[in-house]
Amino acid sequence: MRYEFQRKSLRGRRWPRLTLRGRLALITGVLALVAAGVLVPLLLVEEPPVEKPRKPTRTLLIPEGWRADQVYAAVDKALRMPSGTTRAATATAGLDLPAVARGNPEGFLFPATYPIDDTTTPKSLLRYMVTTATERFGKDRITQGAQRNSLSLYETVTIASIVQAEADTEQDMGKVARVVHNRVALGMPLQMDSTLNYALGRSSLDTSHSDTRIDSPYNTYARTGLPPTPIDNPGEQAMHAAIDPPPGDWLYFVTVEPGDTRFTADYDEHLMNVDEFNENRRSATP
Fold first, then answer.
1. Residue 104: count of CB within 10 angstroms of its CB
2. pTM for this one?
3. Is the pLDDT of residue 105 over 70?
4. What is the rounded distance in angstroms from the CA atom of residue 166 to the CA atom of residue 197?
5. Within 10 Å of residue 139's Cβ, how many Cβ atoms?
6. CA 199 to CA 205: how far, in whole Å?
7. What is the pLDDT at residue 57?
8. Nearest CA-CA partner of 234 in 123, 142, 99
9. Torsion of CA 164, 170, 174, 177, to 10 degrees
10. Radius of gyration of the chain (CA)
11. What is the pLDDT of residue 12?
12. On the CB side of 40, how many CA atoms lie within 13 Å of its CA?
């Protein structure tokens, strides 16, 4: 009933008619609204500004066991610097090294893959390496292990550097570290070819009697105790071997052939192993 009443009421009502001017004003307003409705979406879908491309990033790999000289040369090459630039930068780079290192970063140029770009400098890269070493070597297990062995962190890094240079495989690292600890405890010279090679600036399997007579603090045939500095830059596995070597009475070892390193506490047995090593070397030489 209410619906019928409303229809009748509306049917009988008269609506005002628009004049020509009113019709024009209405059409103009509608067109303005349509234009605004189109313009706003266009503004909203406008693409954001394109970001500037980032500078390309390269990487520099520092392998475990590299000496500082090798690291310096690699950094010079990677950063396209004249030879000797990175070595010179060590004097003013403000490296956070133990006081006993006397500014020499050997042992603390941590082996890893480092990002570099056009803003990288030798100083910044050296600081990055030393900071990484300090963080990795400063972990509780390493510092506590060094204290347990009555060694400083620097001495532990020195042992790890010898382990890194001498061990033929990762599995041998612990035994090599045990030989170093045993010899130091007995006051025996280490007699490590790796320290002689460091003194002579070379890498060689052949050590002569004249080599063992050179006057150098790195001549561990003639001097007892550890060398004055690390002889390369060891990785974490060599560090863990240095602080926690397996028990054993070994005093001698020789890698008779790749993958076959023999450890013993018997000197005569060691001499037989050395003879076998020499024979293998002779047969391998054309």
1. 15
2. 0.80
3. yes
4. 11
5. 13
6. 14
7. 80
8. 142
9. -10
10. 38
11. 47
12. 6
Spatial distance between the Cα atoms of 92 and 86, rounded to a whole number of angstroms:
10
Backbone angles phi, psi at 12, to 5 degrees: -85, 0
User: First CA to last CA across the chain, in angstroms?
Assistant: 120
CA 197, CA 192: separation in Å to the nearest integer?
9
Alpha helix segments (H runs only) across 57-209? 68-78, 85-89, 122-137, 140-148, 153-166, 173-186, 193-200
HSE-CB of 161 using CA atoms within 13 angstroms: 28
- Can you read off the two tokens belonging to residue 107? 């042992």
- What is the C-alpha to C-alpha distance for residues 117 and 120, in angstroms, rounded to an integer? 5
104: Cβ contacts below 8 Å, ≥ 6 apart: 68, 90, 97, 229
DSSP string, 183-203: HHHHT-B---HHHHHHHHT--
Q: How confident is the model at residue 207 (pLDDT cuts 50, 70, 90)?
A: confident
Q: What angle do CA 17, 19, 22 make, to 5 degrees?
A: 105
Coil vs helix vs strand at 249: coil
The span from the CA of 177 to the CA of 39, in Å, is: 77
* 3-state SS assignment for residue 61: strand
* Amino acid in position 131: T
Cα 154 → chain centroid: 19
Determine phi and psi for 264, rounding to 5 degrees.
Answer: -155, 160
Closest CA to 278 of 173, 210, 270: 270
Enumerate residues 6+ apart whose C-beta is below 8 A from 2.
none
Structure tokens at 124: 């910044």
